[in-house]
Amino acid sequence: MDLPVMPPVRPMLAKSVARIPPGMSYEAKWDGFRAIVFRDGAEVELGSRSGKPLTRYFPELVDAFRERLPRRCVLDGEIVIAREGRLDFDALLERIHPADSRVRMLAGSTPASFVAFDLLALDDRSLMDAPQRERREALLDALGGAGDPVFTAPATRDTELARQWFERYEGAGLDGVVGKDPELGYRPGERVMVKVKHERTADCVVAGLRHHKSGPVVGSLLLGLYDDSGRLQHVGVSASFPMRRREELMAELEPLRMPSAEGHPWAAWADEEAHESSRMPGGPSRWTGNRDLSWVPLRPERVCEVAYDHMQGDRFRHTAQFRRWRPDREPESCTYAQLEEPVRYDLAEVLGD
């Protein structure tokens, strides 16, 4: 491979802001795997956000890139999987599997798509220093006739339209809006874009904790919600605390500490089969490797309010943000019914196909 921009390239990143700022180029925030695609003739490589290759996990995209992309190019975009008109991140996670036979089976049953939103190189020219507006024009020209499963992300300079996208596109599984400076060159690894994400709140049961890597203080709180059958399901964690607050939380929660998980709703957490019917902390996963997944059980008696952006199936997609304790709420009242469901929106309408 001999391109004007060579792997690895760290993608340009975004910082969170509260509102959509004026004067930018706006795109939907896709919920998939960020990927830099390098093509030099028959050679194709997919680099992840961390720089590790994703190529072997998406053979159907490699074939599509050879067929539909310019012969020599470098693209920034997102690998996504759509099901029933919306993005399915769980299906995407399943594609990262060590067995080649499993990868190829899933490539046929749940094929991925690629949504391109930046062009870093074309033929012998690097576009890294070109302003974003020029890269956008070159991207539209380069991918004008690409077709499914390669798409170009919709973009607009209209702030009001971006606000409408923010409200409507969540129903298709997208999780916000990204703003880009039209005059800025591509800045690998720098947070020079902005992102506006949805934020909602939920009251959750605090049913356990994990220690911080520095010692016996709170690293994360394990959160639960009751389902329709009355079972407490593990829905995520809250983990961002100053060190002093971690120490305070440890003291506050000490009276709830259980000597063991016996009698706890998640008592069977170490049993792999138990995870097939209930969500509990410490579930086996190829993502966690040999990491210590042990946790400290707490009597599920305290309720806290957390902020979250959106759900991934029956759990929080990202780490929830602790807001406050809710002594006025009974743990049994913390159910899935309180969660707001976005109005569904067909992903095909987002992509204009």
TrEMBL record:
DNA ligase ATP-dependent C-terminal domain sequence ranges: 216-329
A Pfam short name: DNA_ligase_A_M
E.C. numbers: 6.5.1.1
Catalysed conversion reaction: ATP + (deoxyribonucleotide)n-3'-hydroxyl + 5'-phospho-(deoxyribonucleotide)m = (deoxyribonucleotide)n+m + AMP + diphosphate
Keywords carried by this UniProt record: Ligase
Keyword field contains Ligase: yes
UniProt KW Ligase keyword: yes
UniProt GO molecular function: DNA ligase (ATP) activity
InterPro entries per UniProt: Adenylation_LigC-like, ATP-dep_DNA_ligase, DNA_ligase_ATP-dep_C, DNA_ligase_ATP-dep_cent, DNA_ligase_ATP-dep_CS, NA-bd_OB-fold, OBF_LigC-like
Residue span, ATP-dependent DNA ligase family profile domain: 11-197
Family membership noted in the UniProt record: Belongs to the ATP-dependent DNA ligase family.
Protein name, entry field: DNA ligase (ATP)
Organism for this UniProt entry: Streptomyces lycii
